[in-house]
Design brief:
This protein is α/β, with parallel strands linked by helices and about 375 residues long. It is built from eleven helices and 14 strands.
Length: about 375
């Protein structure tokens, strides 16, 4: 059997047929046109170059100005942003690819300088994330990292507005030509903040019990699925990730309840984001088995995977697709390189965030010279 044959077998995902099991990870790159956080032809080239992925999931994209936590990240709440994203989807589809837009509200991981009229960021509860900083721009145009500070707790009656922001963003994403959307419910952002008992200390119907903490996720899924269809909707969760002051002893159990609810909703896939730093703990096998029992649909795994590790999980029936981040960033032709055992370009961390074409759309395909 050829090496990595499972990674290169096709998979049906809702109405799509993916030619391989390699997913390009959502990676924040902070390269949009200003003012307005609008995608451009540069972004279109970057994504189209990587269209040989079985599926592309875009960088996290804020559903509103309130949902922004970092400078120069793209939005999907204005007509201009929608039209900018249309450049991207047209280019990816012309290159034969498939692409989902990741919808994002950062919640407390923001700063007043990034918020409308300098307001406080919102969250389920007014609890500051310890040691968490965000990338913002000084009035003189200088980028710098700022402490998040203490957010404002959303009033109960405001939550319907947030759900509506997700719905409207999903509608704009479909108008922009995306094949579907992914809800960012991971890594310490708003949906994740509602799911965890340590960041959600509400006493209304959105806090307290695990079923209450799941309520925002369920309402957003229902609203977004009304625009996209559940077969074009994925959800990303990260129960074992504690970055951004998100340690919660209840989260693993809560995530399994979430998986059951997402299966009932009929979504296209569940995207499991795992810790990706050096010496990160591995997700226990018994958790993967429990997750599979509760979510028998398509599971994507992410977290510094090698082709060998991804192949093994697919063979064991514990995953269906495998996400690659920095390798896709630096290797537009990553599927070919994996399939043929070719050497990989090395990513340049200095160009990960912000800037222009350097370190973005100028990584060469195999056999071509760098620009």
């Amino acid at each position: 059997m050829p090496a990595h044959s499972r990674l290169f077998s096709p998979l049906s995902l809702g109405p799509l047929v993916l030619p391989n099991r390699l997913v390009m990870a959502p990676m924040t790159r902070s390269r949009t046109a200003q003012p307005g956080d609008i995608p451009t032809a540069l972004n279109a080239r970057y994504y189209a170059q990587r269209a040989s992925a079985g599926l592309i999931v875009t960088e996290a994209t804020q559903i509103s100005r309130e949902g922004q936590g970092y400078a120069w990240t793209p939005g999907i709440y204005t007509p201009a942003q929608r039209d900018g994203w249309r450049l991207v989807t047209d280019a990816v589809h012309a290159a034969g690819g498939r692409i989902f837009l990741q919808l994002w509200h950062v919640g407390r991981v923001s700063h007043p300088s990034l918020q409308p009229e300098g307001q406080l960021p919102v969250a389920p509860s007014a609890i500051a994330p310890k040691g968490v900083r965000v990338y913002a721009i000084d009035p003189d145009g200088t980028p710098r990292f700022l402490d998040c500070g203490t957010p404002r707790a959303l009033e109960t009656e405001e939550i319907a507005r947030v759900v509506e922001d997700y719905r409207r963003a999903a509608a704009l994403a479909m108008e922009a030509g995306f094949d579907g959307v992914e809800l960012h419910g991971a890594n310490g952002y708003l949906i994740d903040q509602f799911l965890r008992s340590t960041t959600n200390r509400r006493t209304d119907g959105y806090g307290g019990s695990p079923s209450n903490r799941l309520r925002l996720l369920e309402e957003v899924v229902a609203a977004v699925a009304g625009e996209t269809g559940p077969e074009r909707l994925g959800v990303r969760l990260s129960p074992h990730v504690t970055l951004q002051d998100m340690d919660d002893p209840e989260m693993v159990a809560t995530s399994l309840l979430a998986a059951e609810a997402l299966h009932r909703a009929g979504i296209a896939y569940l995207h499991l984001a795992e810790a990706d730093w050096d010496d990160a703990p591995l997700v226990p096998r018994d958790y993967r088995q429990a997750l599979r029992q509760r979510f028998p649909g398509t599971i994507i795994v992410a977290g510094r995977y090698t082709p060998e590790r991804g192949e093994a999980l697919i063979e064991q029936g514990l995953a269906d697709l495998v996400t690659f981040g920095r390798p896709f960033l630096a290797n537009p032709d990553l599927p070919r390189r994996i399939a043929e055992g070719l050497p990989l370009n090395t990513p340049d961390p200095k160009t990960f965030f912000g800037g222009g074409a350097a370190g973005y759309d100028d990584y060469p395909v195999y056999g071509a010279a760098a620009k």
